[in-house]
Amino acid sequence: MKTTFHPAGSRGHANHGWLNSYHTFSFAGYYNEERIHFGALRVLNDDTVAGGMGFSKHPHDNMEIVSIPLSGDLEHNDSTGRHAIIKQGDVQIMSAGSGITHSEKNANSHAPVEFLQIWVFPKERNIAPRYSQKSFPKAERLNQLTTVVAPDNDNAVWINQNAWFTLGHFTAANTTTYHLNKPESGVYVFVINGEITVNGEKLQKRDGLGMQQVTELTIETHTDTEFLLMEVPMVLHQA
Questions:
Q1: Which of 24, 135, 204, 217 could, after both became Cys, cross-link 44 (CB 3.0–4.6 A)?
Q2: Which residues contact 232 (CB under 8 A, 6 or more apart)?
Q3: How far apart are CA 112 and CA 72, in angstroms?
Q4: How many domains does the chain contain in total?
């Protein structure tokens, strides 16, 4: 087993006033040559946007962009005519493909919105842009693993990559096991809240742990906990 530990306090940080952002991997003004990506996982940003503020229209191409609100409401508009509000419990993915323009803003004027923005390199380049959004209510996920992003699961949002994202919401003193879909994949564990031990490695709030050469994870919870598992290819093969 090969592991890479990223403590919460080691992340890049940029506070623009309206946007407070923590970067697990190199992004914008934060650059660390040892933290460019984890396999196909390119960006893991932990963003808080002030009330009424947001990202104006900007382009993307050939990237799978996943948004997971942790609190508040996020408003999405894009060049396909899509307009949606993404709430806590929702997961949104935008397959940018051959090119798309979009904007994201806090849908509320008096309260911040907190969300994870995650980028994954695609399996196939220049596909027609796609959008998907589904709800995974927190109360319905208690003490179980829930697959929310997958290339092969109709209950999850579809991704143009052999990647699987799984949310865990567990009370204290629980143990669960995650079995990898592909033995050659790696898994990046991100603790949203709480404290857990994964294959003997202790993690706290906003810590990240990349794991390779492993076929399953044993996860023990020490407090009420939320975490995200991101299973991704470690070698990129783009068509």
A1: 24
A2: 38, 39, 40, 41, 120, 161, 162, 163, 185, 186, 187, 188
A3: 6
A4: 1
- For 75-111, write each residue's pLDDT tens digit: 999 888 889 999 999 999 999 999 999 999 999 999 9
Q: Calculate mean pLDDT across residues 207-211.
A: 98
The number of residues making up the chain comes to 239
201 lies in a domain?
yes
Cα–Cα distance for residue pair 200/215, rounded to 1 Å: 15
Rounded CA separation 76/106 (Å): 9
Average pLDDT in the 200-222 region? Answer: 98
We report the CATH number of the domain holding residue 21 as 2.60.120.10
Predicted TM-score (pTM) of the model is: 0.97
* 73-78, strands of its sheet edge to edge: 54-60, 100-106, 73-78, 83-87
- SS3 label, residue 81: coil
